[in-house]
Amino acid sequence: MSIATLPSRGTRGDISVSFEFFPPKSAEMEANLWEAIGRLAPLQPRFVSVTYGAGGSTRERTHATVERLVRETDIAPAAHLTCVAASRDEIDEVVRAYHAAGVRHIVALRGDPQGGIGSAFTPHPLGYANSTELVAGIRRVGDFEVSVSAYPEKHPESSSLDFDIDVLKAKVDAGATRAITQFFFENDCYLRFLDRARYRGVTIPIVPGIVPVQNFKQTASFAKRAGASVPQWLADRFEGLDDDPATRRLIAAAIAAEQVLGLVDRGVTDFHFYTMNRADLVYAICHLLGLRPKADARARAEAA
Ligand code: FAD
Fold this sequence. Notes:
- By secondary structure, the chain is an alpha/beta fold.
- It has one domain (12-297): TIM Barrel.
- It has eleven helices and nine strands.
- Strands 7-6-5-4-3-2-1-9-8 form a nine-stranded parallel beta sheet, covered by helices on one side.
- Helix 2 (59-72) links the parallel strand 2 and strand 3 (77-82).
- Helix 4 packs parallel to helix 5 (161-173) and helix 9 (245-264) runs parallel beside helix 10.
- It is globular, with a radius of gyration of 19 Å.
- Flavin-adenine dinucleotide is lined by residues 51-52, 54, 80, 82, 107, 109-112, 130-132, 149, 155, 157-158, 163-164, 167, 180, 182, 209.
């Protein structure tokens, strides 16, 4: 394929994105979040998701954020939910409350062990034992779209990638309709996982999770705990920029652009962005992907 005919060089109409936010802790963080949502919403994401703090610690805040999305925007929200430290009845209650609030999409996760990543996971005695049971439980409560996680570099607790794919298959059999991956920096790693999952009969969309590196040290430390590898070339690209935030942001944009456009050239059309509640980088990357705010798109269509 010549460079001119690479898919990423074309005008595309088939790219679809979703954005992940975390629920704010303070009034200031809440203002930042809604500013970010206000900037990204006109790009018409397929959905935006709101995370659920470790051990259910943000239950009310997640619910409040998702409910506000339903009330004040026309974007479809997805609520993350974990089964840590809660009985089945408590979880089912949360799911029913989402249904009553008009939410129809849940991102179902087991959650990290209460002792922190690296310790053993102990289910609540009356709880869902794992994410597969949680998916089935959600589907029993109501008609939800259910997204689940996938780990291109294997979940840190898992014995093998094949075992993780077995787990993914079980989640699909229980009713999951989409997988969103842990973030990764080497596209081949995601593409190999995709091939392997397809070969093993997983047919649902497996959407790459993309993290724009807003802060290299923070991302590297999170990646270590989450079992995502940080290639040396990535560290090299941020080297010497600790006191130069403006250049860091340009580098971050260049790296994320290279990653998503590389995936587009390998046939990927759906992306999930871990926004860290900040819009600028993600907005720029979406622009490169050909997405335009709705109002502009309408104006262009009218002018055409
Ligand atoms: P699972 O797919 O359930 O797997 C977890 C581990 O259990 C794996 O090692 C797997 O092999 C093993 N396993 C699964 N089923 C079985 C079984 N039947 N028998 C034996 N072993 C089994 N965490 C939060 O707290 N809140 C969030 O909002 C949140 N959002 C996330 C969003 C995405 C897209 C991703 C990728 C992760 C998110 N996480 C979140 C992190 C996630 O909760 C942790 O990684 C957690 O440790 C695993 O939960 P899981 O549902 O992703 O994994």
